[in-house]
Amino acid sequence: MKSKKSIGYIIVALLAVTLVGFGIHSFTANSASKDSDIVVGSQGSDYDIWQHIAKSPQAKKLGLHISVKQINDGVQLNKATTDGTVDVNAFQSWSYLQAYNKENKAGQLKALGTTYLEPLGIYSNKYKNVKDIPNGTTVAIVNNPANTSRDLLLLQSAGLLKLKPGFNALGDTRDIASNPRHLKFDEIDDTTGPRVLKSVPVVLISNKVALEGNLNVLKDSIFHEQVNDSTKDNINVLATAKKNANNDKYKKLINLYHEPAIQKYIKAKYDGTKVEVKKPLSYLNK
Predict the structure, then answer these.
(1) What is the pLDDT of residue 169?
(2) SS (H, E, C) the chain
(3) Using CA atoms, how far apart are residues 32 and 23, in angstroms rounded to an integer?
(4) 237: phi > 0 → left, psi -120 to 50 → alpha, else beta; which?
(5) What is the mean pLDDT of residues 195-215?
(6) Less CB within 10 Å around the terminal CB: N or C of the chain?
(7) Is the pTM here over 0.70, yes or no?
(8) Who has greater pLDDT, 147 or 135?
(9) pLDDT tens digits for range 229-272
(10) How far apart are CA 215 and CA 213, in angstroms?
(11) Which of 77, 192, 89 is nearest to 143 (CA)?
(12) Above 80 in pLDDT, residue 54?
């Protein structure tokens, strides 16, 4: 007859085996769950869009299990993508991605595909057409480098000025080659456009800020960006770490974004101001 002490050892041993078995099973289940998930990092309106997409029947049909993580700083969001905290991010333009890669050689990102263009607009409470803008008019443009150059490119597209050859994303008013209407420039914070519009005759406002100020770039601006070669750097993309660029599961997110039902939702929610761009990546590189 076994002693009570021996029986106790046997019970402890069996309990340990059971717990270990349970632990292994739990770890395996959690790992499988993690492997089947895609963490999309985003911010602002893109965060809201991807929360909707994650819950959509279209995501389920493609077999995609998506969780959405909000990180409101662009640099930190890109770093979270390269270190694996986030699998794919949805917030940046092609030009932002290129600039980030130039500054972060050790943490490179690759675009998976295009999503949309949010047109930049020229707004005025005083003039109905850019042709009506007279000599000497003050124009408010934003005071951060990337958006300053984008503002000036739009003014050139509107026929209001000409820029020097080789003008790039770091260009500013010193790179104006010709200013036939003698426009004056007032540099403002990029969040203040709708308020400034009350006191400055012409103001350039990004779509994100315009929406927050109850302005629709397609209806309320007197001139705005179109999807063409001159604006391709401003097209938004989905991005991932360079090592994941050929991940077929991540690539499915592009197809998912462009599903008709998803686009119908986005168009309705943002009144058409997130203009769908379904272009191959080669279009951005040419």
Answers:
(1) 80
(2) CCCHHHHHHHHHHHHHHHHHHHHHHHHHHHHHHHHHEEEEEECHHHHHHHHHHHCCHHHHHCCCEEEEEECCCHHHHHHHHHCCCCCEEEEEEHHHHHHHHHHCCCCCEEEEEECEECCCEEECCCCCCHHHCCCCCEEEEECCHHHHHHHHHHHHHCCCCEECCCCCCCCCHHHEEECCCCCEEEEECCCCHHHHCCCCCEEEECHHHHHHCCCCHHHHCCEECCCCHHHHHHCEEEEEEHHHCCCHHHHHHHHHHCCHHHHHHHHHHCCCCCEECCCCHHHHHC
(3) 14
(4) beta
(5) 95
(6) N
(7) yes
(8) 135
(9) 989 999 999 999 999 999 999 999 999 999 999 999 999 999 99
(10) 6
(11) 192
(12) yes
Both tokens assigned to 173: 């008013």
Cβ contacts of 92 within 8 Å, gap of 6 or more? 74, 78, 100, 236, 237, 239
Rounded Cα gap, residues 77 and 86, in angstroms: 8
Integer Cα distance of 250 and 281 in angstroms: 15
Domains present along the chain, CATH in parentheses: 33-117+234-285 (3.40.190.10), 121-225 (3.40.190.10)
| C-alpha–C-alpha distance, residues 163 and 177, integer Å | 5
**pLDDT category of residue 36 using cuts at 50, 70 and 90:** low
Count CA atoms closer than 13 A to 62's CA, side-chain side. 23
Express each pLDDT in 157-182 by its tens digit.
999 999 999 998 889 999 999 999 99
Residue 137 has pLDDT above 80, yes or no: yes
d(CA 197, CA 3): 90
pLDDT, tens digit, 9 for 90 and up, residues 75-113: 999 999 999 999 999 999 999 999 899 999 999 999 999
- The side-by-side arrangement of strands in the sheet containing 236-241 is 65-70, 37-42, 88-93, 236-241, 109-114
